[in-house]
């Protein structure tokens, strides 16, 4: 679609675009699609709303944003040469602006301008570039606020409330001829500031102290406070119009004067090129992959260890949600990691759907049924499941320990941890790492600088170098979490991660599998009551060994220690001494040490000798001497025991407390049922009901696919055709006002539609669907019967059937309307 005259409005500019360009706009700004605009005019109106413009500006890179800011301080409309001059300067370089920077700006400006045009932030030909009004209001300075460029208002804006007499005084002090017309006076003063030669003469006559004042204001903020009796330098500047009063105590450096002092530049440092991500080390890619694989295996084992520790029911959930500080510390101690790292592992398990609330009245965290399925997978598949969940998660564990907007503490697994920008930042950070050579570890500061260049409006005080904005913090957390999770190894992106990003989990698992050692079916038993696992163990062996022994140290080899308590734990789970001896003999590459055999036999001999039941609770034992010994022990006072019979004691505490108390006293009691049978307690029996992983909180509307974009563009085009088509003005159906629906009686509608079906002509109709939404359409009726009209709908580019009672009216098109 071509135009013979330049567009006068944004709607006309959008109407002149082809379908591909309109689809590009909707793809870049998907918020414009909800709901689909009825025509081009609606699309242009929606594209100019403040919320939509702010969202679009937030997604611009630094140079595209600087281009928009330069247009905001230029006259409207502005030619391309004026825009280029605001970015490169007028040639009076002060040493900060090098020649190669000007060439870089000239090369990058067409691309930045194309981005602004594509997103409907700028429209018009190069001779008349226009920034949409809402963006100008956001980015341009006003008498009360400076622009992001640090420029103040124009002379005309700053003097809008100034008296004519004061204007005459400024003109006289500046050596300009007097005029009684305020408009002419303002024009003359602005012309002085934009005249290089005369402005140079004026500044040459200024006191040195006055030039120092200008130096402090020239790059912003342009406002300053003055006293009722200003100093001579300030008085000189105010008398000559270089500082204009905004209020009784505030003055401003006008935009035209500031641009002269800046050598015509809107920005001190234009940044046409993204900063490069620099390397701090170049490592052997194989060493990187090995380190990442080791960390990936550790991550899988850590998640499994965390969930195993919560198998019987994890920590209680706070009333406001999440883990208490005490429970987080306890978890960190159990995992032997700092508290922030423990919060990361808990959040990762939650994001992967392996951990959830049990939903009980006494609400606690517990593994989900999905955990059992995950635990049966090979290690590489378990890792890809975790990594994929981490990439998509909006929950941000780095916020744990901070405060929300109301000053409340943010807890692990609690609410208010979702940040919709997190997935996009993670993917972008990893994309920057993937662009480096394999084995290259980047400098984190250069990664942050690149992220701030790509999304400058998402951070606070970016121009001042503040790195505390949310995106920068998420980027830093991403680098740290990547190392913990095995995404990177020794700071560089691993090969299996590149495959995960490019090809998906299956390819990543295939590359990771050879780097993970095969699970072992044996351990090495030692005489000091320890067992060494020289690598990862097969799951049945690991489960049994974790019940029989306590982990003493972790690393490349895991050391387990056998204690009376750990052996009793295995006996409580239903194992017998013979079972334990056989298990150790079958899975040890070394002979079973005699001290370990004695330990198992000794604990088994005493295990179950005491029986605990519910009275509140009781102790039963065939050996009266043992019961006498318990009663004589001062540590049993808290259990409130009394003898019921020679072989039975009653207690005033519940059976679980009685069990725990006697075990602390050094005994090995066993719980029994009401029938007198020993109760077997098996670990890992508690699971939540089926739970799905938490759904990430999206950042704005999703990017539409090609099918939706095509349908939306067709609907907008057809709606625009219906809204702008030329209709015949007849006595029966007079032409409606633009944008309104045609109105005819039912009889007139039926007669007109039947006639159009016979002649094959097109009609303009108003239609109200079942939801009550009204629209305009151009149709070519084919058949009219049974209260329905079947027609080719130019709006949808397909044949449709419409109930006649939903058509508000019809009108014939002018003879040249469909030409």
Put the structure in a nutshell.
With 819 residues, this protein is an alpha+beta fold.
Describe this structure in words.
Helix content is 44%, strand content 12%. The protein has 819 residues and is an alpha+beta fold. Helix 5 packs across helix 8, helix 20 packs across helix 25 and helix 21 packs across helix 23. The longest helix has 25 residues. The chain is extended, with a radius of gyration of 39 Å.
Mean pLDDT: 85
Helix content: 40-55%
Please give the number of β-strands.
Answer: 25
Q: What is the CA-based Rg, rounded?
A: 39 Å
Distance between the termini: 14 Å
Name the shape in a single word: extended
Annotation field: number of helices: 33
Query: Any low-confidence stretches, pLDDT <50, length ≥5?
Result: 459-467
Residues in β-strands, percent: 5-15%
The main sheet orders its strands as 18-19-17-16-20
Secondary structural class: alpha+beta
Biggest sheet: strands, sense, closure?
Answer: 5 strands, mixed
Helices and strands in order:
Elements lengths: L9 H6 L3 H10 L11 H8 L2 H9 L3 H12 L6 H9 L10 H20 L3 E2 L6 E2 L1 H7 L15 H4 L5 H10 L8 H13 L1 H9 L3 H10 L5 E3 L6 H8 L4 E2 L4 E3 L2 H7 L17 E4 L2 H25 L15 H11 L3 H13 L3 E3 L7 E3 L1 H7 L3 H14 L29 H13 L5 E3 L1 H11 L15 H16 L2 E2 L2 E2 L1 H8 L2 H8 L11 E3 L3 E4 L5 H10 L1 E4 L4 E4 L2 H9 L4 H11 L6 H13 L4 E3 L3 E4 L3 H9 L9 E4 L2 E4 L3 H10 L5 E2 L34 H19 L21 H14 L3 E6 L5 E12 L2 E6 L4 E6 L3 E6 L7
Parallel strand pairs: 16-20
Antiparallel strand pairs: 1-2, 3-5, 4-5, 6-9, 7-8, 10-11, 12-13, 13-15, 14-15, 16-17, 17-19, 18-19, 21-22, 21-25, 22-23, 23-24
Helix pairs in contact: 2-32, 5-7, 5-8, 10-11, 13-14, 16-18, 16-20, 17-18, 20-25, 21-23, 22-23, 24-25, 27-29
């Amino acid at each position: 679609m071509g135009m013979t005259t330049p567009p006068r409005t944004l709607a006309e500019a959008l109407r002149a675009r082809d379908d591909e360009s309109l689809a590009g706009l909707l793809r870049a700004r998907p918020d414009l699609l909800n709901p689909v605009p009825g025509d081009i005019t609606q699309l242009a109106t929606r594209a100019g709303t403040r919320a939509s413009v702010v969202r679009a500006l937030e997604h611009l890179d630094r140079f595209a944003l600087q281009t928009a800011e330069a247009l905001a301080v230029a006259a409207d409309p502005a030619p391309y040469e004026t825009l280029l001059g605001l970015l490169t300067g007028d040639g009076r370089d002060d040493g900060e602006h090098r020649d190669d920077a000007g060439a870089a700006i000239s090369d990058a400006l067409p691309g930045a301008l194309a981005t602004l045009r594509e997103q409907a932030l700028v429209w018009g030909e190069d001779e008349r570039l226009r920034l949409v009004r809402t963006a100008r209001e956001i980015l341009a300075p006003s008498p009360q606020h400076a622009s992001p460029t640090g420029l103040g208002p124009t002379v005309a804006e700053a003097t809008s409330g100034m008296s004519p007499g004061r204007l005459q005084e400024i003109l006289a002090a500046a050596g300009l001829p007097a005029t009684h017309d305020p408009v002419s006076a303002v024009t003359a003063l602005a012309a002085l500031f934009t005249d290089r030669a005369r402005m140079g003469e004026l500044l040459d006559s200024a006191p040195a102290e006055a030039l120092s004042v200008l130096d402090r204001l020239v790059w912003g903020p342009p406002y300053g406070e003055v006293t009722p009796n200003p100093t001579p330098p300030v008085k000189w500047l105010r008398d000559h119009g270089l500082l204009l009063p905004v209020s009784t105590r505030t003055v401003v450096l006008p935009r035209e004067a500031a641009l002269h002092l800046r050598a015509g530049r809107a920005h001190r440092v234009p940044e046409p090129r993204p900063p490069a991500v620099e390397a701090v080390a170049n490592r052997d890619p194989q060493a990187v992959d090995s380190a990442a694989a080791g960390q990936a295996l550790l991550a899988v084992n850590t998640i499994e260890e965390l969930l195993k520790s919560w198998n019987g029911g994890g920590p209680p959930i706070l009333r406001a949600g999440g883990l208490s500080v005490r429970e987080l510390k306890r978890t960190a101690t159990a995992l032997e990691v700092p508290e922030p790292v423990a919060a990361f592992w808990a959040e990762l398990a939650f994001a992967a759907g392996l951990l959830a609330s049990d939903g009980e009245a006494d609400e606690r965290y517990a593994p989900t049924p999905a955990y059992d399925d995950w635990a049966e997978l090979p290690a590489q598949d378990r890792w890809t499941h975790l990594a994929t969940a981490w990439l998509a998660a909006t929950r941000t564990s780095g916020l744990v320990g901070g405060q929300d907007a109301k000053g409340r503490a943010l807890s692990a697994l609690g609410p208010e941890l979702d940040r919709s920008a997190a997935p996009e930042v993670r993917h972008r950070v990893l994309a920057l790492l993937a662009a480096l050579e394999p084995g290259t570890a980047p400098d984190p500061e250069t990664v942050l600088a690149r992220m701030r260049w790509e999304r400058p409006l998402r951070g606070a005080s970016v121009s001042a170098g503040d790195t505390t904005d949310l995106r920068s913090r998420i980027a830093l957390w991403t680098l740290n979490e990547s190392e913990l999770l095995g995404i990177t190894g020794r700071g560089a992106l691993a090969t299996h991660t590149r495959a995960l990003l490019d090809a998906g989990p299956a390819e990543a698992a295939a590359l990771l599998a050879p780097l993970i050692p095969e699970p072992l079916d044996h351990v090495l038993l030692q005489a000091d009551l320890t067992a060494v696992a020289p690598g990862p163990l097969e799951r049945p062996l690991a489960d049994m060994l974790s019940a029989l022994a306590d982990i003493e140290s972790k690393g490349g080899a895991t050391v387990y220690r056998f204690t009376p308590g750990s052996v009793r734990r295995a006996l409580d789970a239903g194992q017998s001494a013979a079972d334990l001896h056989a298990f150790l003999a079958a899975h040890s590459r070394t002979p079973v040490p005699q001290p370990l055999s004695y330990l198992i036999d000794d604990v088994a001999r005493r295990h179950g000798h005491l029986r605990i039941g519910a009275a509140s609770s009781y102790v039963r034992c065939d050996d009266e001497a043992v019961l006498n010994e318990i009663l004589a022990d001062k540590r049993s006072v808290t259990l409130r025991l009394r003898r019921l019979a020679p072989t039975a004691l009653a207690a005033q505490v519940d059976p679980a407390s009685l069990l725990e108390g006697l075990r602390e006293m050094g005994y090995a009691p066993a719980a029994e049922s009401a029938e007198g049978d020993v109760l077997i307690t098996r670990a890992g029996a508690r699971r939540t009901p089926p739970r799905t992983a938490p759904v990430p909180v999206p950042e704005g509307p999703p990017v539409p696919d090609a099918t939706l974009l095509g349908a939306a563009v067709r609907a907008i085009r057809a709606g625009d055709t219906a809204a702008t088509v030329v209709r015949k003005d007849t006595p029966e159906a007079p032409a409606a006002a633009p944008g309104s629906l045609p109105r005819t009686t039912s009889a007139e509608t039926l007669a007109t539609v039947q006639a159009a079906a016979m002649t094959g002509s097109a009609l303009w109709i108003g239609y109200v669907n079942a939801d009550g939404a009204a629209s305009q359409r151009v149709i070519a009726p084919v058949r009219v019967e049974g209260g329905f009209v079947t027609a080719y709908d130019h709006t949808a580019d397909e044949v449709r059937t419409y109930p006649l009672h939903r058509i508000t009216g019809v009108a014939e098109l002018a003879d040249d309307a469909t030409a």
